[in-house]
Design a protein that fits this description.
This protein has 446 residues and is an alpha/beta fold. Helices cover 37% and strands 18% of the residues. It has an 8-stranded parallel β-barrel, surrounded by 4 helices. It has a 6-stranded parallel sheet with strand order 20-19-16-21-22-23, with helices on both faces. Strands 1-2 form a two-stranded antiparallel ribbon.
Length: 446
């Protein structure tokens, strides 16, 4: 599973860094940290997301500073986002905060102590933003499956889970690296919080202690396991930080630590990439005998534009080479059909002219997959024998189920991140279907 935030993919071929100071102490400090980390990450090729909290609602002592507040904090985060040009992650603690925070933040983070609060999870998911759920210090990794399931239907491709250590004895946390493997069962990208994992909660009496010296070691271990992102709190002067000073990394040490991290990640992901390359040589088509090719209309067979005459009649522009590709598939014994959410005479006329095998209109989201499954039952085949090409979110379910999934070059990011999907070079309406047809026929001749 992959999660897309702007042009950053969490769960891709390299780890993503989520980092910044624990608390928003000032605009100048946030800008300093964000600019420095962006520069370092750009040099090292690490995708970067800025993190800072406007409120630390779970301080050890009632006298400890909590932060500058949501209103002022969001203004600072917005400036960092716009001027530095990086996505933003920040915490939410109460349901009412979610919509306001979502106006600025790209990722809403659920603190570990609140990870089982259903109403908070749902409120965060309803914003449409990515939700990062920190595993409670009191939970086993497999318990997080139930947590993720609370919002999986609402945000199927917008959930992250973060390991931040497990309570062990008094004032101590332990990181079990097998937990990072177990968290994969949640079916979402896994983040490792390297700095909170070295906390000693309440270890200094009225405040939390920690051991930042262990952070680089844990980062290397987590990357060796194969996590998708590293979460780290980094401060220009940790000894005087408002919160979590003992476990925050020094900003001046970031480049050295991240340089080593990239080397470890390259070893792990390079091995994975090599395996994937070997699997790609076999081709997903060779795994499944394609007997049926289904397609969406708008954005695949057309450029997605809606054209109207002076009389208000709708027009669509189809590409003749796509039509030829459909006929070539049929001549090879492969059935071809259209499943679309629209109901128009234009599409019906196009299907009749090409003499396609199937046409189903007015089908959206889950209906597309159900329709494809019905066709398979009638043909005596399975979804493994189906190739489907789509470009938008209403195609995601059927794309994930198809034996071969493909999308045009201009498909939405959520579609492009579907595991195993073939991203075609042609755009919708410009020969994308023909490119897929040629690919299938070429493989069939091997």
């Amino acid at each position: 599973m992959k999660v897309q935030i702007s042009d950053i993919v969490i769960g891709g071929d390299r780890f993503v860094l989520i980092a910044g100071p624990c608390s928003i102490e000032s605009e100048d400090m946030c800008m300093l940290v964000a600019k420095h980390l962006k520069q370092v990450c750009s040099q090292l090729g690490i995708p970067y997301i800025f993190k800072a909290s406007f409120d630390k609602a779970n301080r050890t002592s009632k006298d400890a500073p909590r932060g500058i507040g949501m209103e002022r904090g969001l203004k600072i985060l917005k400036k960092v986002k716009e001027e530095v040009g990086v996505p933003i992650l920040t915490d939410v603690h109460e349901c009412w905060q979610c919509q306001q925070v979502a106006q600025v933040a790209d990722i809403l983070q659920i603190p570990a102590f609140l990870c089982r609060q259903t109403d908070l999870l749902v409120a965060a998911a309803k914003t449409g933003k990515v939700v990062n759920i920190k595993k409670g210090q009191f939970l086993a990794p497999w318990d997080m499956t139930n947590v993720v399931d609370k919002i999986r239907d609402m945000a199927p491709d917008k959930i992250l889970v973060t390991e931040r250590g497990t309570s062990f004895g008094y004032n101590n946390l332990v990181v079990d690296m097998t937990s990072l493997v177990e968290l994969r069962r949640c079916g979402v990208p896994v983040v490792f919080d390297a700095t909170h994992s070295v906390q000693k909660p309440g270890g200094m009496g009225g405040s939390t202690g920690g051991n930042r010296d262990m952070v680089p070691h844990l980062i290397r271990a987590a990357l060796a396991v194969g996590v998708d992102a590293i979460f780290a709190e980094i401060h220009p002067d940790p000894e005087h930080a408002w919160s979590d000073g003992p476990n925050q990394l020094r900003l001046q040490d970031a480049e050295k630590i991240l340089t080593m991290a990239v080397k470890y990640d390259a070893i792990t992901k390079g091995y994975t990439a090599q395996n994937n390359a070997q699997n790609t040589m076999k081709s997903p088509i060779m795994k499944h005998d394609i007997k049926l090719v289904l397609t969406d209309v708008d954005g695949v067979l057309t450029d997605g534009g809606m054209y109207y005459t002076a009389q208000g009649d709708t027009m669509k522009r189809f590409n003749v080479i796509d039509g030829m590709g459909m006929k070539m598939l049929q001549q090879a014994g492969i059935k071809v059909g259209i499943i679309t959410g629209e109901t128009t005479d234009i599409v019906r006329s196009r299907v009749e002219k090409l003499k396609l095998d199937f046409l189903f209109m007015g089908k959206g989201f889950a209906d597309k997959l159900h329709t494809a499954e019905d066709i398979c039952r009638d043909m005596g085949i399975t979804m493994d024998n189906v190739a489907y090409i789509g470009d938008d979110v209403n195609c995601i379910n059927i794309l994930r189920a198809a034996g071969l999934a493909a999308c045009p070059a201009n498909a939405l990011p959520q579609v492009k991140t579907i595991e195993g999907i073939i991203q075609l070079k042609k755009q919708g309406g410009q020969g994308a279907f023909r490119e897929l047809a040629d690919f299938i026929l070429k493989d069939k001749q091997r």
